[in-house]
Specification:
The chain has 10 helices and 11 strands. With 297 residues, the protein is α+β, with helices and mostly antiparallel strands. The protein has a domain at 44-114. The chain has a 6-stranded antiparallel sheet with strand order 1-2-5-6-9-7. Strands 3-4-8 form a 3-stranded mixed sheet, with no helix packed on it.
Length: 297
């Protein structure tokens, strides 16, 4: 398992893989990179005006004096849940009991309150086959992915599957294939550019960026599933939980399971109470999975 390193200028957890090179200098990665780039920024104190508008004997204002602090994501989801029953008075669940409060949310399937907290991550060192599976997740997710229609050349990188890394023959085949693919891709790109300059109609466009796309969108046809597909992925806690349940399970594909597991580890730092019910399980193939009693909230 890759160790978590910390950025010098922040406490955001990340996993940074090494970039390897073939003999001819083509880049490839053997494991995913994960970094949290955005977390909730919460202003619970902003509830003051709202709470003070109720009769003083209800004691709603004291809601903001809870001596126990939660993480922003937890504070946000708890306040959202407590708004539903206006549970701001002395009989409410205090922050010290937030673990029990969220367990109740999970048990009752009241997962919509978990939709308020969003986290964004950059994932890299992952293949296009992984991103193809990832973008099947619709509810609560947002994606921005490197465009193969626009980007190529020196930024093109490949992903070596774990099965290939541990087998000399498969590893050598991978290295050869990567070199060959890169070379062919460059050859086709150069050839198409020449044709474009010569006025080929199918490759023509009015704008410079479109000209580039016309070439790359044709050349990418030969790129394999093992091409890297970096992606910025944003999801709310409810959606992340569903993703972990589906994709960090023993039934999921090993590559997506691995990046999902790293993402879980990073997110757990920021919202332990929202993900704490997931148990880490060791699977027979040597990888990690996650299991929870509350798979669908
Ligand atoms: C092990 C595994 C194998 C798979 N194999 C295949 C395969 O062979 N072929 C294939 O095509 N896909 C396959 N998938 C993908 C799978 O079918 C889902 O597309 C993917 O897991 C996203 O799940 P989801 O729709 O629950 O998630 P999301 O899109 O994130 O949706 C979350 C939840 O929101 C609700 N929801 C979302 N959209 C709708 C809607 N339009 N209507 C009603 N409710 C909605 C559902 O309750 C859903 O579970 C596989 C997935 C896994 C984990």
């Amino acid at each position: 398992m890759t160790s978590l390193t910390r950025y010098l200028d922040s406490d955001f957890p990340s996993v940074v893989p090494t970039v390897c090179k073939t003999d001819s200098g083509i880049s490839y990665l053997e494991s995913p990179g994960v970094v949290i780039v955005s977390v909730p920024y919460v202003n619970i104190a902003g509830l003051k005006g709202f709470l003070e508008g109720f009769p003083a004997d209800l004691g709603f204002s004291d809601y903001l004096k809870d001596p126990v602090r939660l993480t922003p994501a937890e504070e946000l989801c708890k306040a959202a849940g407590q708004l539903c029953y206006l549970s701001f008075g002395p009989g409410r669940s205090m922050n010290a009991d937030a673990g029990k409060y969220f367990q109740n949310i999970m048990e009752s399937g009241h997962g919509s309150v978990l939709e308020h907290a969003n986290f964004s991550m950059l994932w890299w060192g992952i293949s296009r086959s992984l991103t193809h599976e990832l973008v099947r997740h619709r509810a609560g997710f947002g994606f921005s992915q490197v465009s193969q229609r626009y980007v190529g050349g020196k930024t093109l990188r490949f992903i070596e599957r774990p099965e290939f890394q541990t087998d000399k023959h498969l590893h050598n085949l991978f290295l050869r294939r990567v070199d060959r693919t890169y070379k062919e891709y460059e050859e086709i790109t150069d050839y198409l550019m020449e044709k474009q300059k010569g006025g080929a109609e199918l490759l023509s466009a009015d704008r410079k960026t479109d000209l580039r796309k016309k070439v790359r969108q044709a050349a990418r046809a030969l790129l394999p599933n093992e091409t890297e597909g970096a992606v910025m992925v944003t999801a709310n806690v409810r959606a992340w939980r569903h993703f972990f349940n589906m994709r960090v399970s023993e039934h999921a594909e090993v590559e997506i399971r691995r990046v999902g597991f790293e993402a879980f580890r990073c997110l757990s730092v920021f919202a332990p109470l929202l993900f704490g019910d997931f148990e880490q399980v060791h699977l027979s193939d040597g990888t990690h999975g996650l299991k929870t009693l509350y798979p669908k909230v």
